[in-house]
Write a structure and sequence with these properties.
Elements lengths: L9 H32 L14 H32 L6 H27 L5 H23 L8 H24 L8 H8 L39 E2 L8 H4 L6 H11 L10 H4 L3 H7 L12 H13 L5 H9 L7 H14 L1 H4 L21 H5 L1 E4 L8 E3 L17 H12 L2 H7 L7 H8 E4 L1 H4 L4 E5 H6 L20 H5 L2 E3 L11 E3 L9 H6 L2 H12 L3 E10 L2 E5 L9 E2 L3 E10 L15 E9 L5 E5 L13 E3 L1 E4 L16 E5 L7 E9 L8 E11 L3 H10 L16 E13 L23 H14 L3 H14 L5 H13 L2 H14 L4 H13 L3 H14 L4 H13 L3 H14 L4 H13 L3 H14 L6 H10 L1 H6 L5 E3 L12
Helix pairs in contact: 1-2, 1-5, 2-3, 2-16, 3-4, 11-13, 11-24, 12-13, 25-26, 25-27, 26-27, 27-28, 27-29, 28-29, 29-30, 30-31, 31-32, 31-33, 32-33, 33-34
Length: 977
């Protein structure tokens, strides 16, 4: 039967037919994509794309979905513009309403599709994706409704039938092609070759069995087989062999001419973001943040590191059996092979694009993009596992599969790059599965490179602990793992809490959530690197970070030879000094916001110190400790926060030559929530009578000490070519305190001043008790229990409702061995707050010392309910079981200790004792070997002693209590630099 004429012209009819044909494909395409989504969600393995693969047919369908969808919107607009004038009078009829709704929602569908291509892949714009999905269901339904409501052009049943059958046939065809498509991981050519050679199960692979490569029954947890291509680094690759450096750099090597120009100008690459340009297309904010980070400048683009690594590679000629075996296994090292091999211990964390590609085996071309890359995006994000918590770069790089999306190698700004990004944004799950692992938000991830140990293959000596931010954090209140902490924060903090805080993402980073991303500046304390680059903004960020409630300086107490007691809270209790008397001023430095020790990192080259000065009313410096001399060197008698270590000849470690460390002379650091006290003694000059003196204390920081800066400058002139002389690195004032005190003459001397002056009633400082508490903590840590009692008693007086006073007095009594006093104050704690686990820790320790082992064990067990990874509580519980002759129970507990800390020598020692008690000699021998491996070499103390005899400043800092003598006979005092 003849049908009524259409309200369309012949050209519009062609447009309509083309649109319907494309709609068939679009509908089939959508069903296909929906089936894939359901298959992945419900784990239909026979059909699912998978979490790490992207078949070509699937990506073609995603891209065609975008292209055809946009074309359909264009055709709809063309048809609508031509069709509406003919039917406008009927807009109030049902067909008109459905038609206009179809047109409007079709535009919404197209606009949200375009938005998805640009911004909606970000979490903040997920609403656009959902709107797109919802309208995708509504628009076809509206079109059908519109046709059914048409007065003259209702579709035939046969037409619907043909449309449906064609669509279903196309879906079936796509499904068949999909099933026949390779959906397994596509290996790189290099990974395929490695598998053919069996390297994926070899010593450089994550599946290696290290016991196969170690002679003897004891195999350390972090043992590295010399047969590994990455030895002595703990790093592995999924392929088990060297990877192509493009895995780390993403092939974004930058313009060669620009790189050459930068190196010629300043000595290293500063502006070319090697290994990040592809990532920048979606992660603009994160890349911009990373560009200023110390991570980016970690390799040969760091002149300080380059000086150290080159020195090691060229001067270390001490062979050992492990290095010899490695050189035999990999004969491509050539001259200087010993130093080159050992240098890979550093390169696993500093030079992954070189070391993992086998390029550290030969002379490194410092001008190459790989040498100037630093830690790129993929140096961290290609890690798919951390082997354990022993550090030393013990990660695995997933190198067998590259970017699975189409046109992955297309340069930015090309059509290929656009299509690649469109496919990725449409299906970001695979990308996220590859490059965003759940453990990235844990401190264990950071421990990979921020926990270090040295062993005989590197130092030709024995196992030694190096820098270790992980355990310093884990065994503290910050991690909520230490019941014995003095201050317990309300919530756990991890590394990322401080060093990757939320930061605004104004450039539209697709990873942004609520407008912010996790900062990739990794802000910490390194002001030296931005100084070399002239990056004042980053220096300011670092200084602001350091000053943001990280540490506090407090000139807290003063005593004199004539007064048997101290005046505490000196600013609240001003005291008159007497001309001619000798006084001692106590300066407290509290770690109130650093989640590990201050300082952390490489403390043999770090330099934190207190500058303490006495000035007259005019501001002239009369005496000073902690000055910097004209040559840029720090006062050797200063109160410092760093470590001094020596080699086997008692020479100081000043080149970051960690492989030569044999003994620690001193390591003065402040643990989380604890305090350090510097004592300054001086005689008040007679001529100051009737005047006032200004006591000033400043906590100062310089990333590298002068000796190391001089070494780096002289060893690496190419890296420092922009400087004509040794650079003066910035000195940052972290915190300061200042007190003004009057000086009286002898004639006005009071008869006696023995009392601790009372705190004024209604004191406005609600945190005064914290200052007393910090002072007591510092005194307790330097074993001045008498002074600690006085401070903690004041805490109990100021805040009688808190546990801190009586609990810390109980701790002090325990250290003094006064168990009865400890019991008394613990009962006070129970009256204040019964069942507190931090109080239970002290109960357990006191009962253990009292020989009440069963009671002590119950208390430790109670503590562990609240602090299950408290290594100190576990160790003491294990020892308590041992003392109570419950040997198997003790063994079980010490095995738990090793799960927390696999290198805990105390645990191995007690395991040895327990096994011996049970007559299990073979197990005892094995534990004994482990203890001998990790124990401290007590004979090394003689090496440190020789250095102390020759260096009075180091000898002073090695004392339990450090008293610094101030002299007033320096002409004009010492000027601050």
């Amino acid at each position: 039967m003849a049908r009524n004429k259409w309200f369309v012209s012949q050209p519009l009819l062609i447009v309509l037919k083309v649109a319907i044909a494309l709609a068939v494909f679009m509908l089939a395409n959508t069903v296909y994509l929906l089936l894939n989504s359901l298959a992945d969600k419900w784990d239909w393995s026979f059909f699912a794309v998978g979490k790490t693969t992207m078949p070509v047919i699937f990506q073609v369908m995603i891209l065609s979905h975008t292209g055809v969808g946009l074309l359909l919107v264009l055709l709809m607009l063309i048809f609508g513009i031509g069709h509406l004038p003919r039917v406008w009078k009927r807009y109030k009829q049902p067909g008109g309403i459905s038609g206009i709704s179809y047109l409007v929602l079709g535009l919404v569908l197209g606009i949200t599709g375009l938005f998805i291509l640009s911004a909606s892949a970000s979490r903040d714009n997920a609403w656009a994706w959902w709107l797109h999905v919802i309208t995708a269901f509504i628009v076809p339904a509206l079109y059908v409704l519109h046709r059914l409501q048409s007065l003259k052009n209702q579709p035939s049943r046969s037409g619907f039938r043909r449309f449906t059958l064609t669509t279903l046939s196309l879906v079936a065809g796509l499904a068949v092609v999909h099933l026949l498509t390779n959906r397994s991981v596509v290996l790189t050519p290099e990974a395929q070759l490695a598998r053919e050679q069996g390297l994926h199960n070899g010593p450089g692979a994550p599946s290696r069995d290290v016991s196969m490569f170690r002679e003897g029954p004891f195999v350390p947890r972090g043992f590295i087989p010399p047969e590994s291509p990455f030895f002595p680094s703990a790093a592995t690759t999924s392929s088990g062999g060297y990877l192509p450096s493009r895995i780390i750099t993403r092939g974004d090597l930058g313009a060669a001419e620009k790189i050459e120009a930068e190196i010629d100008a300043i000595g290293f690459v500063k502006d070319t973001a090697i290994g990040a340009e592809t990532c920048r297309r979606c992660h603009q904010d994160i890349v911009q943040q990373w560009e200023t980070s110390a991570h980016r400048f970690a390799s040969f683009n760091n002149p300080f590191y380059e000086a150290t690594i080159v020195e090691m590679r060229e001067s270390d000629t001490l062979m050992n059996v492990w290095v010899e075996k490695h050189l035999q296994q990999f004969p491509d090292f050539g001259p200087d092979g010993i130093g080159r091999a050992k240098s890979k211990w550093c390169s696993g964390c500093h030079d992954p694009s070189l070391m993992l590609a086998g390029k550290m085996n030969q002379v490194v071309d410092r001008r190459s993009p790989e040498a100037q890359a630093g830690l790129t995006c993929l140096a961290c994000h290609a890690i798919d596992r951390v082997h354990d918590v022993t550090g030393n770069g013990n990660y695995n790089i997933a190198d067998e599969q590259e970017d699975p999306y189409l046109f992955a190698d297309s340069p930015s700004g090309t059509i290929g790059a656009f299509l690649h990004d469109a496919a990725l944004k449409a299906r970001p799950g695979v990308h996220m599965q590859q490059l965003q692992k759940g453990f990235f938000s844990t401190s264990e991830y950071c421990a990979t490179c921020h926990k270090v140990s040295l062993d005989a293959p590197v130092n030709n000596y024995r196992w030694l602990r190096g820098q270790d931010e992980y355990d310093n954090w884990h065994d503290s209140g910050v991690s909520l793992n230490a019941s014995r902490t003095f201050y317990l924060p309300p919530a756990k903090r991890v590394c990322q809490s401080c060093h990757m805080p939320p930061e605004a993402a104004p450039l539209g980073d697709v990873a942004a959530k609520n407008g912010v991303v996790r900062s990739h500046r990794f802000t910490a304390v390194n002001t030296a690197l931005p100084f070399l680059r002239g990056d004042e903004e980053t220096i300011k960020r670092i200084e602001d970070f350091l000053r943001n409630e990280k540490l506090r300086v407090d000139i807290f107490a003063l005593s004199s030879g004539e007064s048997p007691q101290k005046t505490m809270a000196l600013n609240n209790n001003p005291r008159t000094l007497m001309a001619g008397e000798e006084v001692t001023v106590d300066v407290v430095v509290r770690n109130q916001g650093v989640g590990h020790t201050f300082p952390g990192g490489t403390n043999d080259s770090n330099e934190g110190w207190l500058e303490f000065s006495v000035q007259n009313e005019l501001g002239n410096t009369l005496a000073i400790s902690g000055y910097i001399d004209e040559a840029g060197h720090l006062d050797p008698m200063a109160h410092v926060f760093k470590a001094v270590m020596v080699d086997g000849h008692s020479r100081p470690i000043r080149k970051r030559n960690a492989q030569d460390i044999r003994a620690t002379v001193f390591a003065n650091v402040i643990g989380p929530g604890t305090a350090d006290i510097a004592h300054y003694t001086f005689t008040v000059p007679e001529e100051l009578a009737g005047e006032k003196v200004i006591l000033s204390a400043r906590l100062l920081w310089r990333k590298f000490d002068r000796a190391y800066t001089e070494f780096a400058f002289n060893r690496n002139p190419e890296g420092f070519k922009q400087f004509s002389e040794v650079p003066d690195l910035p000195v940052t004032e972290i915190d300061a305190d200042r007190i003004i005190l009057p000086v009286a003459g002898k004639a006005s001397r009071p008869a006696a001043r023995t009392e601790i002056l009372p705190v004024a009633s209604g004191n406005p400082d609600p945190n005064l008790w914290i200052r007393y508490n910090d002072y007591g903590i510092g005194l307790l840590l330097e074993q001045d229990t008498r002074g600690a009692y006085q401070a903690f008693e004041k805490v109990a007086e100021l805040v009688p409702q808190r546990l801190d006073g009586p609990l810390n007095i109980a701790k002090t009594a325990l250290q003094d061995g006064d168990l009865e006093k400890a019991y008394g104050y613990l009962r006070q704690c129970e009256d204040l707050k019964a069942g507190d686990p931090q109080v239970a820790w002290v109960w357990a320790r006191v009962r253990q010392e009292d020989g009440l082992y069963k009671d002590a064990a119950k208390a430790y067990t109670y503590v562990l309910k609240f602090f299950p990874e408290d290594r100190a509580a576990l160790s003491q519980l294990g020892r308590t079981y041992f003392l109570d002759q419950q040997y198997q129970a003790s063994i079980d507990i010490f095995e738990q200790v090793l799960e927390v800390d696999p290198e805990n020598r105390t645990a191995y020692y007690h395991l040895m004792l327990n096994y011996q008690a049970l007559g299990m000699q073979q197990e005892a021998d094995l534990a004994g070997m482990a203890f001998e491996y990790y124990r401290i070499d007590e004979s090394a103390a003689t090496i440190a002693q020789q250095f102390r005899l020759e260096n009075p400043g180091a000898n002073l800092m090695a004392q339990q209590i450090r008293i610094h003598q101030l002299e007033f006979d320096r002409p004009g005092g010492r000027a601050r630099r």
